[in-house]
Structures are given as structure tokens and as C-alpha cells.
Amino acid sequence: MGFEKITLEHKRQVLEELADIKALFASRNWFPGTSGNLSMRVGDFDPEQFYFAVTASGKDKSLRTPEDFLFVDKHGKAIETTTLKPSAETLIHCEIYRLTGCGAVFHVHTVFNNLISEFFGADGHVPIQGIELIKAFNIWEENAEIRVPVLPNFADIPSIAELVPGVLDANVPGILLRNHGIYAWGKDAFEAKRHLEAFEFLFEVMYRQLLLKGATK
């Protein structure tokens, strides 16, 4: 389906849902200093051609304006005439959509995901085991363990995007950038939000456990 065939109503619904999620995350201080980015796919998924709405670069995400989002194609290029620029990290969203066929990708910067990604960064993953909220990822076995990938935070975004296929785990809907933030995704905005909130809870629990244990590397 070409972008022109996606209904105006569908596009409007996507923008409204993104705006509501942006406001919620901003209230939690998950977008410090205009950081972070959100996106939602519009229309059916086709790995050869898909479209999504993404946050515009450099905007104060605590505000709600008509210029908060723009629509881009599978290459992260704007598909409508606009003066807005897509977030600098849109290429990472592109890779996640291409590889998973998901419906939404959310990226936030928090103190806990920065601290945990730095502590485990040299290992290339964060090991999480036996914490209840792992069930948020539909992993139900007792004492379950997951490994959340950690990628280096290169200044060159395409260099990060190239690494995504090598670490993406279909059972773990998230990737950390070291000392930067997390990308979490889901089949729709509701699921992506649930996954992101679960990751943030898990990272905080792990950080506090490390403090209690006096862990060092």
C-alpha cells in the first residue's frame, strides 16, 4: 500500500496516539533536553515499503504542537513536503521495523537505563533473571532469564543501525545504547509502552540490587 492510500483518519489517529504517549513519557522526565524519539507505523507492513510517523528533531517534548511529528519512508526520508527534520536516530527505527514488522518503536533516556547499560556495556548485554516483570515480554517460565543487547553509542548513527540485525532477539523487544538510552518496540503502541515500562522497572531493580550487593567491575 502506498502512503497516499492510507486514510487521513488513520494518520490522524496515529499522530494523536503518539502525542498522548509523548505527553505521558515527558511527565516522567524520560525526554531530558529534547532527547529521545517515538514512532508508529501507518498502514500495512511490507519489508520492501513501509511508512511511519516519527518525532521531529530538536523539539521540546513536554509541549504539544502541530509540528511534533512527520511521516517518513523505510529509509527515514520525509514523504511529505515539510520543513521538519526527522530525529537523528530514525535509521535505527527503520532497522527495527524492517527486521520485526512491529507497529511502534519508543526510545527514551533515563538515569537507570544509562547506568545499567554502562555497567554491563563491555559484556554486550544486560543479564536479567528471576524478576517478575520479565513476564511483560510473554516469557512465563519460572526464574526466567533474558539478555538485553547493549550496542556502542557511536556518533555515526548509520554505524549503530548496521549493528542492529546482529543483536536483535525476537524474544527480547529492546536494545540499549551504552550510556545513552533504550529502544523498545511492540506490535502496537500499547505493547511497545508495556515493554518499555517493564524494561525501565527491571533496570531500576537491577541497579538497586547492585547497590545492595556493592557490585563492582
Give the arrangement of secondary structure elements.
Layout: H1 8-27, E1 37-42, E2 51-55, E3 69-72, H2 90-100, E4 104-108, H3 111-119, E5 125-129, E6 145-151, H4 157-161, H5 164-167, E7 174-177, E8 181-186, H6 189-213
Parallel strand pairs: 6-7
Antiparallel strand pairs: 1-2, 1-4, 2-3, 4-8, 5-6, 7-8
Helix pairs in contact: 3-6
Strand content: 15-25%
Order of helices and strands: HEEEHEHEEHHEEH
Low-confidence regions: none
Number of strands: 8
Sheet/helix structural class: alpha+beta
Integer-rounded radius of gyration: 17 Å
What's a quick, concise take on this entry?
The protein has 217 residues and is α+β, with helices and mostly antiparallel strands. It has helices at residues 8-27, 90-100, 111-119, 157-161, 164-167, 189-213; strands at residues 37-42, 51-55, 69-72, 104-108, 125-129, 145-151, 174-177, 181-186. This is Methylthioribulose-1-phosphate dehydratase.
